[in-house]
Structure formats: structure tokens, C-alpha cells
Specification:
Elements (H helix, E strand, L loop, with lengths): L2 H16 L2 H9 L9 E4 L5 E4 L1 H10 L3 E3 L6 H5 L12 E4 L3 H13 L4 E4 L15 E4 L6 E4 L4 E5 L4 H9 L3 E2 L10 H7 L6 H4 L6 E8 L4 E4 L5 H7 L7 E9 L1 E2 L3 E10 L3 H12 L6 E9 L6 E9 L7 H8 L6 E2 L2 E4 H5 L11 E9 L4 H10 L6 E9 L21 E9 L6 H12 L18 H7 L4 H11 L16
Parallel strand pairs: 4-6, 5-6
Antiparallel strand pairs: 1-2, 3-4, 7-8, 8-12, 9-13, 10-11, 10-12, 14-16, 14-17, 14-18, 15-16, 15-20, 19-21, 20-21
Length: about 500
């Protein structure tokens, strides 16, 4: 150990010993990582690269947060993502404590042309938030939400989870659109779109972003809003992680009561056609205050097949029965979980049932209407299997989401009434080929009813398909990419390829 590092470590230990326990723990978390030698890495183009010991050590010494290497405590937890079928090993993991650490990590990745992944909640279905042989920026230690009640703004650190924002904002009787699973990362959900239980009232999560702070590929921290760097502000809202790492979001908040009426109601699969046809007609007249999802579910291990309707009514409680009662009468429920409940509790309802907690595979597409032909294809192709669960699901859109001009943000799919996806899950570690092949075949019978896909749910696509999916916003996105990430450092996403 050189003299500088010895002094840093010795002084740090002495200071930590004199601090209260919580401060000592914080100091320990910032302990400098000792780099034992050169490290083998992989570039964004897939080539091998040797990361010099001294350079990696310099990166470690520059951080207030942590640098994790294979074998370090916390490395395996940091590299893991929610999809248990993804098992990748970054050469380096940076856990930043703030925007400056993010900047150091981005500069190091760019200077060494490393493949770079950014992890917030780890919900990327295809594992884009981790990588083999590259640099992973794990934002899990960079979480905070502060609510400005007077101005109705939430200031949210880039690594925060949706539940952090819901918890703090609802304490003030305020809310913004924040997904449907509380352990989802704010960053990934918001930059790709951000559907949620109040989206029909208040728009997508990205529609409520007033400003962002972003570390772009040159390592600079930029503020982006309507007034400052407006091109970056536009691109971040729908262009996903193509332009940099968002270190802070500024969300518009809306007043809303804590108590909503919502939950799941399940019907036997034998009634699926009637219930789904009911839902298709019912959906056409629902108010903005009502969120309504539809799912066709086949559970592994003989646990049953069901058709499900999920509701969240955030309007006046006395008017809820007008919308809930027809759903209860759509068939003969086997489970009726719809009731008045705390909104934050409803936001956590699916935390333990998200199918991505096991090995999983997903296909998705936007749908403008649920036709009889689509219902027939859904029911006809769903096959029970003892070793996997399968689901066809329609996430709620429309309302305020569709009233935003197509070019107001980079998200172009304002025509969509539903985000339809097919999902399968199986035991982590089991062979995947049979299950993936099944869903691909099933989806081939459904895809004709879709137009475009949600970048937060996509698993695989050609570059041509990705380009077309941005529709009329594509050329503008390329211009933003050329300006802020001309070398395509941030490519683990629904990638916009630079042309410079």
C-alpha cells in the first residue's frame, strides 16, 4: 500500500472510531477498494480490453461511494437484477454517493470504451442494467425524495424506488404517476414512459417531469428543462437511458386523497371469453379517475387458471360502486379483493407477485382496442404447463396519456389504449429454451394486433425495429444522441444509434 493510501485508510479508521455508530458505518461504506492487479474488461463493441491497476485504483480513490470488484462483499448483490434468468458479471461496479461519483464513473467508462450498464431498481426485463465485463453503475445507494409541499414538487434522487416517492408525497396528500410495483426504479420507469395507477388522471411519469439533472457521456452534469438544454429534456422523456445517467428528477405533484378503491378480482378461466368481452366494452367509457387492467393467467403447479381485472378508482369514494359493481357482475368471481384501501398500500400489492422475480421472458406491444379476434387468439394460445406460469396482460392507458401531443416528448405512443404483454416465468436455473420458444410462438399470434412496443418491456429487437418504434420522433432522437452521446457509450437500452 502506498503512503497516500495508508494515510487515508489510517485517518479514516481513526475518524470512524470516534463517530457514533451510524456515522461509523457510513464511513466504512466509503472505505477505499484496494485493486490487486490489472482487470480484464469488454468494450462496447465486444472487444477485450485490459484495465490497468493504477487507473482502476485512481477511479476507486476518486469516489465517495464504493467501487466493487469480483469477490468483494456486496458485488453479487449489486450485479443481480430482478429477472433470475440473467446472470452477468461486470468487471467493475461503481455505487455512487452523488452526481460527482457518477461523473467519475462515466469518464472512466468512456476513456476505456467499456460497455456500460446503469442499474436503478434492476427491473429491466432483458437485463440491460447489468453486463459482462463492463462497468455497472449501481444507483442503489443514491436514494432520496424531498417534497416541496408549497410548490407541489418532488425532488427525487436518480437511484430512488417508486415506493420512496409514493411514501413521501402521499404524506402530504400529493401524488404523481409512479408505476404499479413499488420496488421499481424511478429512473428506468420514467425515462421510458411510466404507466401507473393514476396515469389516466395525470399522464405518464415522464409527463410529470419538470426538470432533470443528467450526467451525459462527456461526464458533464447538465440541468435540463424547458428553459435549459430543452433538447435533452425532450429526449430523456421517452428516449430511455440513451443520453446519460439521470441523477435527479423534479416531478410535478397533484393533490389526491390517500384512500382509493382498488384491488384484484379473479374469475374462473371458463368465463374468460365473456369477462374479456365485457372488459373491452366497459373500458371504452371509464373516467380518468379509473385505472383498469385485464389479465389472463395460467399458474404453474396446478394452482389454477384465471382471468383477472385489477382496478384503482381514485375519484370520490361514494361514486366507486358505479364502476366496481359492473365488474363484479361480469362473471362469478372466485376472489374479490376490491375494497377501499390506502393508495400506498395498493402500490405495494403486487410487490411479491411480480413474475420477473423468477427467470422470465416478456414480449410486449401497444393495443388500441381489445377485439373479439384478439380475445380468441389470447384464449386459444394460452397453454397450461406444470413448470411455468404464463400471462397475457393489458396495462391501462388512455385518458390523460393520450391527450399529450405525439411530439411533446420522445414517447410517441399516445394512441395506445393498452400496453399488452405476454410473460412467462419459470424456476431460476431450469432450462429456458422450451419456455421461451412457447412464448415466441404465442406472441406470433398476437403481434398482428399491436402497433409499436413499450421500451421498458422489450426483450429483443433488431436495430431497424427499434428505430421504427420511435416513429416520427426518431430523427429528432438521433440529433439528441449525436450531441450528447456521439460514441454510443449508453447503448444498453432501446438504442438510438448515433450517426456522427
Amino acid at each position: 500500500m502506498d503512503r497516500r493510501r495508508f494515510c487515508q485508510t489510517a485517518v479514516g479508521a481513526a475518524v470512524a472510531a470516534s463517530l457514533p455508530t451510524s456515522h461509523a458505518i457510513a464511513a466504512a461504506l466509503q472505505a477505499l477498494t484496494t485493486v490487486a492487479g490489472d482487470i480484464n474488461g469488454i468494450t462496447g463493441d465486444g472487444n477485450d480490453v485490459v484495465l490497468k491497476q493504477a487507473d482502476v485504483q485512481e477511479l476507486s480513490d476518486s469516489l465517495r461511494g464504493r467501487l466493487l470488484l469480483p469477490g468483494n462483499d456486496g458485488y453479487d448483490e449489486a450485479r443481480a437484477v430482478l429477472n433470475g434468468g440473467i446472470d452477468r458479471y461486470p468487471a467493475l461496479i461503481v455505487q455512487p454517493s452523488g452526481a460527482t461519483d457518477v461523473s467519475h464513473a462515466v469518464n472512466y467508462a468512456r476513456e476505456n470504451s467499456l460497455i456500460t450498464a446503469v442499474k436503478c431498481g434492476g427491473h429491466s426485463t432483458s437485463g440491460k442494467s447489468t453486463c459482462d465485463g463492463g462497468l455497472q453503475i449501481d444507483l442503489s445507494s443514491y436514494r432520496n425524495c424531498e417534497v416541496d409541499r408549497k410548490n407541489r414538487i418532488a425532488h427525487v434522487a436518480g437511484g430512488s424506488l417508486l415506493g420512496d416517492m409514493d411514501h413521501e408525497s402521499m404524506a402530504h396528500g400529493l401524488v404523481t404517476t409512479a408505476g404499479t410495483v413499488s420496488h421499481t426504479g424511478v429512473g428506468g420507469l420514467t425515462t421510458g414512459g411510466g404507466f401507473g395507477r393514476v396515469a389516466r388522471r395525470y399522464g405518464l411519469a415522464l409527463d410529470n417531469v419538470m426538470a432533470v439533472d443528467v450526467v451525459t457521456a462527456d461526464g458533464q452534469l447538465r440541468h435540463a428543462s424547458k428553459e435549459e438544454n430543452p433538447d435533452l429534456y425532450w429526449g430523456v422523456r421517452g428516449g430511455g437511458g440513451n443520453f446519460g445517467v439521470v441523477t435527479n428528477f423534479h416531478f410535478k405533484l397533484h393533490p389526491m386523497q390517500r384512500t382509493v378503491v382498488g384491488g384484484d378480482i379473479l374469475f374462473p378461466v371458463a368465463q374468460a371469453r365473456d369477462v374479456m368481452k365485457f372488459f373491452a366494452a366497459y373500458y371504452e367509457s371509464i373516467p380518468d379517475e379509473l385505472y383498469a387492467d385485464l389479465g389472463l393467467i395460467s399458474s404453474a403447479g396446478g394452482n389454477g387458471d384465471f382471468v383477472m381485472i385489477h382496478l384503482c378508482y381514485s375519484g370520490p369514494e361514494k361514486e366507486a360502486s358505479k364502476w366496481v359493481d359492473p365488474v363484479r357482475n361480469a362473471g362469478t368471481p372466485v376472489v374479490d379483493g376490491i375494497k377501499a384501501m390506502d393508495y400506498v398500500a395498493l402500490q405495494k400489492l403486487w410487490d411479491e407477485t411480480d413474475p420477473r422475480a423468477t427467470a422470465s421472458y416478456i414480449k410486449s406491444g401497444f393495443v388500441t382496442r381489445i377485439s373479439d379476434e384478439l380475445i380468441d387468439a389470447l384464449i386459444g394460445g394460452l397453454e397450461p404447463h406444470p413448470d411455468r406460469s404464463a400471462m397475457a396482460y393489458f396495462q391501462c392507458g388512455g385518458g390523460a396519456v393520450g391527450r399529450v401531443p405525439t411530439d411533446a416528448t420522445a414517447f410517441p405512443h399516445r394512441y395506445s389504449r393498452h400496453d399488452m404483454f405476454g410473460s412467462i416465468s419459470w424456476k431460476t436455473g431450469a432450462a429456458s429454451e422450451e419456455h421461451v420458444a412457447y412464448l415466441r410462438q404465442y406472441w406470433s399470434t398476437l403481434e398482428q394486433y399491436t402497433r409499436g412496443f413499450y421500451v421498458n418491456d422489450y426483450y429483443e429487437a433488431t436495430q431497424e425495429t427499434l428505430n421504427k418504434n420511435y416513429q416520427g420522433n426518431y430523427e429528432r432522437l438521433v440529433a439528441v444522441k449525436n450531441k450528447y452521446d456521439p460514441t454510443n457509450l449508453f447503448r444498453l437500452n432501446a438504442n438510438v444509434m448515433p450517426t456522427v
